[in-house]
Design brief:
Four copies of one chain form a homotetramer. The first copy, chain A, is mainly α. Chain A folds into two domains: 50 residues, Arc Repressor Mutant, subunit A, CATH 1.10.10; 135 residues, Tetracycline Repressor, domain 2. Chain A is 75% helix and 0% strand. The first copy, chain A, is built from ten helices and no strands. In chain A, helix 1 crosses helix 6, helix 6 packs across helix 8 and helix 7 packs across helix 8. The C terminus of chain A is likely disordered. The interface between A and B is large, with 39 and 39 residues. Chain B binds a DNA duplex through helix 1 and helix 3.
Chain lengths: 201, 201, 201, 201
DNA sequence: AATGAATGAGAATTCATTCAT
DNA sequence: AATGAATGAATTCTCATTCAT
């Protein structure tokens, strides 16, 4: 049984405070002081747990990515057929715990930093690769390689586009509608036999 | 013949410098001083032409939006059939002058600010409405209303997703591939007779 | 007949605009640009008529002083007896044209600058000397020299104090009350035969 | 024993530095940087203890007012008869610790700001009310109400006028002469029995 | 582990002044 | 005589980071 370190607790609290602060004040106004205050800690301690602000932001993005990854992994674990694996990826991306207003807002902020930060860029690449690999693994069993490649690319684009929409539309985006678009896209690419509505029928 | 005001020239130069600086240094490091220097001007003059930095950024986003809008409008002007109108919108979004690395980078930055700025949010809403209205106008002549609605939403999501992809992928995104995804999405939603490959045939 | 130079007109306009701007925006916010705008002129022209801002301010203080001086001089011209000369000085200081909200506000600002500006300090000294000399001239004919000296000092202090009060009290100071205090002070210092109420009787 | 907070110490130091800097450089040149340097601190810390420059200035004016108030209060504590209360107020205003060149200079600066700052205006009103109330309390026991009112007004005007004189006259003002004027004014208003020279006799 | 005082660099903004037109 | 574009220094304020306690 792994001991729960107090340092891990603090780190988690600070990451959560970072996400909350970005959501409430915006990326530019998410200062170390404000994040620390939100976590109920002092300014100084932040640098005890994270080397500097960049490392805290990096850890935050990584944490968001890992939350998403675990959500998907959990669903993949109980997926057997290719179609189910696809659904695991899509549903994971729009699950109630991940597809939140806080998360989409934070993601949009991190995306805007990616082109200027090698660290964030690396995280972004890892997420993309993992997502693509998951999708290809399923799609290749359902269609020719090139078509699978294109479908994976399209699906990732749609997922990202939906997250962006959710951040841009003040009122938030209906996860049902989001999933519907993603499923709809996949369905038109699949051979007749593996469509979801037929599976449901 | 409208006189070319020097103030219009300066404003344009400053907006261009803003986009370039954001692209090269990132949103956070796009300081007024750096933008001014890039425009070959002094810091002070920026506030002579734009009340403050927020207004300059707003004008920049507006300028990007208007560039995109004009690109699309120009193509719409010579479009007659619904299918052509669709193509005008898509092609406008991925034209060589608009779908640049500078532009996609700047857009990603502005998107990240939208949730925290009523001004930018308003611009974003106008762009979205215009795009949606253009698409619906064409799509309603090709399919039932609800389906047109969904297709427009999907297409916008894909377009935004592709712009985001272009910003996130270091090497840039092939506009041909981008267009292919968008066209492909539309084609699967259209009745057989109006597909692009058949039109081309 | 002296020709009225346009430069004199401009100078007067700028001085008037300076007083008005100080009154409306405060000394710190009375910028050259705002003063010029209020005078309906451009920023640049201010430096054509006044070497720099300091000179404009100096001219403004001088103009206020000269207005006050002329108001007093006019009354002194028709004063014959010492008592009338005293009244001329007091009434001049609280006349409707000089004892205005604009003027008292501007004076307070200039006073605060006096200790740090040799130029303004010199003007201040001239005003003080002139006032003192006018008062002494009258008072020495009514009382012993030392007593005249003290009375002049007291009266000047009261006059300045009243101007200050007028600036500090938001609602403005009743000139009747102001004059009453000044007259009252003088009366208590005078031998019975020359009091104002008796003179009026 | 109340713990002496370091924040109180710093605040006091900064306020003292503000007064000194205003005295030496003038109100306009009393920049945050200069004040901080004079206090031996960095610019940044000023905003740690005072929200912004306005708050520092407000605290400084308040501190001056409170110094004066305590000086008067201390004398009032040992005053028994009305006449002694009057003396307490006057002497407090011209005591060696309060009637300094630094203080009179700073006051003149603050007075010039009063008409443009609601905050400073409020402080000014409080000071005035307190002074007036102290004086009326004593004067009403020595003369009719209306006359007490006028005398209080006159005395306050003279006190302010003397402070102003002290700031304007380069060489400084003799506190003995200042007190003499104030006492002389009061004496002429009092019934014979309560004059100071007679009391001293 | 934790605090928060303190620093100092750097940001936006203002403004007097100059100068080409 | 007049404009207003342009400059660049100066100012206030913010913030990440450090460090003594």
């Amino acid at each position: 049984m792994p001991k729960i370190e107090i340092s891990d607790i603090r780190r988690r609290e600070l990451i959560a405070a970072t996400i909350a602060t970005i959501y409430e004040q915006g990326f530019a106004d998410a200062t170390v002081a404000r994040i620390a205050r939100r976590a109920g800690l002092s300014t100084g301690i932040v640098h005890h747990y994270f080397r500097d602000k960049d490392h805290l932001l990096e850890a935050t993005m990584r944490s968001l990515a890992s939350g998403l990854g675990m959500e998907i992994a959990a669903r993949l674990a109980s997926a057997e057929r290719p179609r189910e694996r696809l659904e695991a990826v899509i549903d994971g991306n729009f699950s109630a715990t991940q597809f939140t207003r806080e998360a989409v807002t934070a993601w949009t902020c991190f995306w805007s930093q990616v082109p200027f930060s090698e660290r964030l860029s690396r995280i972004q690449r890892v997420i993309y690769s993992r997502l693509r690999s998951n999708l290809l693994h399923a799609l290749r069993q359902m269609m020719p390689a090139q078509q699978a490649e294109d479908t994976a690319f399209g699906l990732i684009t749609i997922i990202d586009g939906l997250w962006l929409r959710a951040a841009l539309d003040g009122e938030g985006l209906d996860p049902v509608r989001a999933r519907a678009l993603a499923y709809g896209f996949v369905d038109t690419r699949l051979p007749a036999g593996s469509k979801s509505n037929e599976a449901a029928a």
